[in-house]
Write the structure tokens for this entry.
Amino acid sequence: RTNMANCAITDGYRQDTCPLPTPGAYQTLYIANLDDIVSWGSGTTAGEKDSITFAATKGLYKFQVQRDSVILRDEKQEEENGAINYTQEATFKILDMSLTARDAVDAMNGVDVVVIGRTKADTFEICGYDNGARLAINVRSTEAADLGHLITIRAINQPGLMKHFYDGTSVASTITLLESYVVGS
């Protein structure tokens, strides 16, 4: 932990579990329009959200994507003036060349979204929580090894690492809660 008042490290960190968590993320992502979110419920842990309130008839869109294609990442950026921000990304592959898949990807162009993905360490990462994320890369190909849409949704100028979503009870009940918000898949 860091004490921001005097910009000094005030405590260490120790890896509590052995072995390290399994890398990767699951193939289900939940995506919402940023403007459809009215508020987030604050969890009991700093940096964690435990619920979402949506505008009437709005909610999450569930994306089932290629297995082992989901990557959730943060990258620290430092400006010349010393300002610090993060770039958050959710990358995944949609193995579908249908018009439905094309239209779902095309609908994300220019739209501020939030992406929630579950890691194999059983954390639910929120990409774009602070000011939204945008479709940054869409490479669509018919080539066998690259078939489908390779998507990167990127959130720039975020004030910190991705926040977590957790209902405060269990992974299973967190998934049930997320599923209750789904309005399209």
